[in-house]
Amino acid sequence: MSTPRISVVCDDSRLTQQITQQLHFLNVPIGEIIDKPREAYMQINLKEPRILLIAEPSEAVNISQVIQSVRKVNETAPIIYLSKNAEFISLRELYRSGVMDVLQLPEEMEQLEKALERANVQYKKNVQRQELLQPKGQQGSSQVITVYSGKGGSGATFLASNLAQTLALNSGAKVLLVDLNMQFGGLHQLLDVPHDRNLGDLKSVLKELTFSQLNNVLYRREDSPLSVLLSPAHPQDAENFGSDDIELLLTACRQHFDLIVLDIPKELNEVSISAISQTDLLLYVLQLDRPSIVRMQQVYNILERYHLVKDESVALVVNRFSKKNDVTLDDLQKMTLFPVWGTIADGMNGLQQLVNLGQLLHTKANDKGPKGPARDMYQLTSVVLQKVGGEPSNGHIPKAQQQVG
To answer: Which domains does the chain have, with CATH numbers?
Structure first.
């Protein structure tokens, strides 16, 4: 078990300097230095061991929310709070939020070494507890595929729905398509289905979500085995969902489906960050133009900075591809380290009728479709299946334990 690094969350530059000097003196490894408490949950490394030092903010911040959001993304990290006041009510709220230890500034700074020793012990206990609570066999029994683009209008929703449909037709796996665009999800319009059953109906039962409850709100395509979970019907419901809700939802879905395809918003908010951090494969959708490529690079910088994904779990899909594009695929490969897994031909004239009728590119198994977007989608699906552990129509993907039906 590797030694945790100490991450410092402090919006006071002078105090940050004092804390880091003390940590250097104690010869302990330092992790992230975060000067905006509200963004701490985005910047903390999700995978590596951490101990958090959170100093009382100078600005008006709901510190309990900061602590809770951090604990959601890194459950094993003990939290030491550096307080500037000793109000009993405030301290009680801190402990309720999940703080392990509180040191009063400046007089108790000399006790930091002992507090870190206690935190290291607590970290080991947290890891052991997490391993005991982790359901055996859950990891690897299913795959979460997130289709995402940081630029609106790239066609991510259209690709996510068609990828899920083609996977359901050709993989032999149980496939679920989830719309996580919480405010203005568009899958119900794209698929031409009612919006009276949706994710909003599950909010109150997410902590103990059963298959029956999940099954009752799903829609199923008549032309494939695909199951669909729509986003909340009312935009204001988006405020009710946080990162913990997405984690609970995906944990439950993994138990009942082999492949889970997520359509997420372009904004990197609490919902999308939680989804990306739990994804097994991120398909980034872009077009071969300068704005799309620049946005992709900006998104990658954020994902890398906050350790949200591993490079090997990211692949590109070029939408509306044409050999007439000024930027070529070779040009794109020189600008990114991610592989291009597929291109979808530019065929908006033909696709517009499908969209208007609520139809998808494929409705039959083993049907590659005509040359153009349909055949390109079939080829992309084949690549995805090979990468996640199966072949088209062979059913090599491990089946979830719970049957859907």
So the answer is: 5-133 (3.40.50.2300), 143-388 (3.40.50.300)
